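Field reference: "sequence" (input) and "structure" (output). Example, N-succinyldiaminopimelate aminotransferase:
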Amino acid sequence: LLSPDGGVAASIFAQMSALAVRTGSINLGQGFPDEDGPAPVLEAARQAISDGVNQYPPGRGDPVLLAAIARHQSRFYGLTVDPSSEILVTAGATEALAATLLALVSPGDEVVTFEPFYDAYGGLIGLADGVHRTVLLHAPDFQPRPEDLRAAITDRTRLILVNNPHNPTGSVFNDATLALIVELATRHDALIVTDEVYEHLIFSGATHTPIAGLPGARERTITISSAGKTFNTTGWKIGWLTAPAELVTAIITVKQFLSYVNGAPFQPAIARGLDLPDEFYQDLATDLQAKRDLLAAGLTAAGFGVTLPQGSYFIVADVAPLGYADGVAFCQALPELAGVVAVPLSAFTSPANRHHFSSLVRFAYCKRSAVLEQAVAQLAGIR
Ligand code: PMP
Ligand code: GLN
């Protein structure tokens, strides 16, 4: 059920991190930063623990965090969200996705995702007994084709699950694509779930457009984000969703039996982060863009075929120019070839469509520059 192949239980990310540890390789597989985020956020968590913020917080989330999420939506996107009824704090974006799908998908309902898709989507649609339909993203820019979207979204579609900026390809959907998704969702009365965990990890030339801000979208859209990506706190597992009040109520009925509530002292700390000045957010994207460029140049010089991502932690590289047809075999050999770990794109695909992506692999560049430089040096000799 949980793996597209019906097999192994460990996620591809856990497997690849274990491979990195076992072989002493540089881990550009699993997407997590290797340095701490902003000091005021870390300090706020320590302070909250000292202040005794250590018991169950309210079910929807600490009001301090709910208010900060509402301010963030207003500051960056001009969206007005009611903190008391339109927000739910969750155990990372993962629990937001899980509770949403379990609450809103009935057995046999169709859920449309884009392919390649973040691995949890396939597993969660399976847990909800939904039927998974996908729309292919095409290299090099990894946008969907309008005709494919029109064919996939029908009256059988309960929910369209969007991920923008996109993991694993780093693509950012253009405005025409987003508008078409809203148009089709409206025509077929489908809900839109939009996973925007990389909303602030977006590079020059691109901007983040939240789907909920598009005309007609708000009433049918559940927007999901996570503090992990923005504040380098992936291990804190604080995420959230915003949606119309009645959808939030439906999702809470499931969430109360999944985790009940989450990380009390981390919630005011993330509120502190969300209120950081604009410069913090600008520097975050600028720093990450420099890392993207460093790795992209290194991969290109080493002979990979590279598409420059517009956002996220990830870059997709084609190993075909290096003489490899199979990204899985390449990733298995890479620790020995170069002391580096990457993830094959096939981990984000269904068996039927795997062949479209077989020579592609994903590298994460959310690592210290020195680590990326070392990785680039080791990859240079690969040909
Ligand atoms: N969605 C996407 C697209 C992701 O890449 C990730 C993981 N990094 C998640 C959701 C899960 O986020 P969290 O760790 O907050 O559960
Ligand atoms: N989202 C991260 C990635 O894509 C990993 C999260 C996880 O390990 N589940 O690499």
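The longest strand covers residues 131-138.
Residues 12-30+279-379 form a domain with the Aspartate Aminotransferase, domain 1 fold (CATH 3.90.1150.10).
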